[in-house]
Amino acid sequence: MKWQIWKNFWGGGELLLTSMRAYEATEEDAFLYHLKEFDKKQVSGFIVKCCQRTEHLKRLFDILMEFSQEYHFYVIEIPEDLHFWGIIKHILLQLYDIETAKLKYFKMTHDNLSNILLNVIDSRESMERIFFLISTMLGNPVGLYNADGTCFFPSNSETQDFRMEKNITEYKPEIITRYQYLCQKRKNTNYIEYIKKLNIFERQEMYFVVSEQNEPLRELDFIALENIIITLQFSLIRHVIEENLEKRYIRDLEYRLLNGSLSNDEENEVAGMHGLNDAEIYRVVTFRMDAKKNMEKFTNAQIKETEMVENEIIRYLPRKHIFLQTNQIIYIHRETEQENGLEFRKKLEKLQQTIQEFLVNRGVEKDFLIGIGKTVTGYHELKESFKSSKIALKYIKIIRRMIGDESKSVIDSTKIGFFYHVIEKMKDINQLQAFIPESLNKLRQYDIQKNGELVDTLECYLNVNQSLKKTSELMFIHYRTASYRLQKIIEITNIDFNNAAEVLGVRNGLIAIRVLEVM
């Protein structure tokens, strides 16, 4: 049937290029019949790759050689590592004028690339085959790079990381084209690179790079690039969609492991997928960005910002157990003997500063916050660590006020003692109110009636070790105003600031007040 279809396209004089592998399942008689039909069609000859590895193919090649001698048509044998595209370009330019050759070559490259797109189901396999085909078409190494210069899809193992040089220029080939390229010559190299920037969903910048290491690009190569670039754009979109679907599925499983919505057996299965061990020690770290001004959550802008931060975090922490979930980024940390808890917290504090500077430099007005969960043994307890990391973030503003440090952005849930106990255990409003001394309740009522700031002043005064000078500086009020307020506080509450037990009760009451404000 295939023979009947193929022969309808031939009008005589064709040169057939083959590796003979298409005839692997063809009997000798059938193959000889095909050769006779080729002769009737006045096929000019064969160009055959020297790769007949089976005895059957070797026998068919012998039949081809015998037939060519008897019927006087050419057979040219070429090495296996020599690709057909260079031969095709040479023949087209010998047989046709340049415009006809460009038109025919455009169709040939389009058909070959489309064949992969339409017939290879797996997107990664499709990309790998497309890149191999592209490199053979162009006769040079090619690669696809991200904005950091890391190669995602190389055409061969020798493809190096990519960087933009200062001497880069714009280049437009001498054909009618939809595309312009960037052109550069790297230091310590003698070849030119052609670069085409590809933008995937306005979120991901990629660079397709052709390195003129073997031979210069000519008109037919840029004709091929017309098809190559649009094929790459389509393939990348398909690959990103498939990759994102897979990521979402994996992230959903990881998140369900952390939020405790899986059965024990399901937890075992998900942990096995992600290489988690029931005997190792873990901590869950939750990263979040909080708007400095009131802004809507879950917007496209916020999603892009969170994805951008995720990519930055991956540069400093292991990629394997980092995943984005709506407006937060979660990291499952495996503890080791080489790094204690203090060292790990210091590492995260340095990371917080780095990411915060990254956001500021890009004009993103967000606070980058980190909540560190408690230490647990085994993946079945990860839910407890995740829960504590979220509590640390949920009440971070209160914690800042209680410790007198508004810049505090990394909170270790194991270091907030009584405060964590209050938050985790006291979910009932009445239970929390029981922590508030009567004297402090009187002060709250006074503030409500007079629209005052006595509770805030008391909190600041205790945070700075009962220093009126520091209280006035931090609250941006005159020293006499701070002194007047303190006298008013003592008048209303009768607090004895020299009584450590009484002061502790007041501080605990302040914690309870701040928790009530966000419940």
Automatic annotation (TrEMBL):
Transmembrane segments: none annotated. Residues 454-507 form the PucR C-terminal helix-turn-helix domain. InterPro entries: CdaR-like_regulators, PucR_C-HTH_dom, PucR_C-HTH_sf. This is Helix-turn-helix domain-containing protein. The lineage of its organism: Bacteria, Bacillati, Bacillota, Clostridia, Lachnospirales.
